[in-house]
Amino acid sequence: MTEGSFTRQDYLERVERAKRWAGLRLGSRLSLEDMAAEAAFSKYHFHRIFSAITGESPAAFVQRLRLDRAANLLETRNAMPVAEVAMECGFATPSAFARDFKARFGMTPRAFRARPRTIEPGAARGAPAGPATARRRDFPWRFGRAEALRLAEARGEGRYDRAAALAWGRLMGSWFRSGRKEPPCPAYGIAWDNPGITREDSLRYSACAPLGPGEALPRGLYELVVPGNACLVLDFEGSRSDYAEAYAYLYGVALPESGFLPADSPCLELYRSLSKGDRVSVELWLPLA
């Protein structure tokens, strides 16, 4: 037998493709066969490959993301009935959702929604919303309209500062290897998960570059299409270590004062230019329902 042509990196990229595909379809019925097909693996071996590489089964991965999404909806969409949250997140019945939610969070969905919440000063990027009394600094915000975007995406996982560094490194590596001479401008970041809900080692961050119509996707990156939407926009300039304060203000002050509910879509970090130092200028674009 001659030497095989598939590397460990090929396996990692295929599993990542399946994870990303499933993560964008949590409200739909997801089967092992569909995930295996997306990864281009045999359905007979995909479960073992996925579990060995990620440390959790495909079913456990999907269940974790569904429960994280449900918890976020319970926090941000107070008027949405619990049964609707269950259906929106892909659970077959409200009773199954209630059982699985309590097993994960130690309380029922209704109790989770009713619990008191506060902003923790040391929380990571994307901190959950809390009361306005916790504010320490004001940030300017406004309304804007985000146009539909076609993006080249690289992803990292782990604590947000590390996940972001990994994602941006991957994006830039593929971007310049494709023959491009200049960094993307603008560029976008997406913090997919709420660190108050998702465990630290599973937080997902995407670094993205815009692509024009018909522009080729650089090798090693994924295509991500973001629909246009009305947004709440918060301007932040400061140290990268203060992202948490900006996100806390966005969710705990600006959003409640806006008169709108958030859409079921992640917040976009818009960078008009990229810098390597500690200081950063970024616009947080939060889609509104």
Can you describe what's shown?
The chain has 289 residues and is an alpha+beta fold. It contains nine helices and eight strands. It has helices at residues 8-23, 32-39, 46-54, 58-76, 82-88, 94-105, 109-114, 160-177, 243-258, and strands at residues 141-146, 149-157, 187-191, 204-210, 222-226, 229-239, 268-271, 279-287. An eight-stranded antiparallel sheet has the order 1-6-8-7-3-4-2-5. Helix 1 (8-23) crosses helix 2. It is globular, with a radius of gyration of 19 Å. The N and C termini lie far apart (57 Å).
Observed structural traits:
globular; alpha+beta; 9 helices; 8-stranded antiparallel sheet; 289 residues; Arc Repressor Mutant, subunit A; Multidrug-efflux Transporter 1 Regulator Bmrr, Chain A
Fourth-level CATH superfamily of the largest domain = Regulatory factor, effector binding domain
**Major pleated sheet:** 8 strands, antiparallel
User: In total, how many beta strands?
Assistant: 8
Number of helices: 9
Class from secondary-structure proportions: alpha+beta
- Span between N and C termini? 57 Å
What's the gist of this structure?
The protein folds into two domains: 8-114, Arc Repressor Mutant, subunit A (Orthogonal Bundle); 141-287, Regulatory factor, effector binding domain (Multidrug-efflux Transporter 1 Regulator Bmrr, Chain A, Alpha-Beta Barrel), CATH 3.20.80.10. Helix content is 38%, strand content 19%. The protein contains nine helices and eight strands.
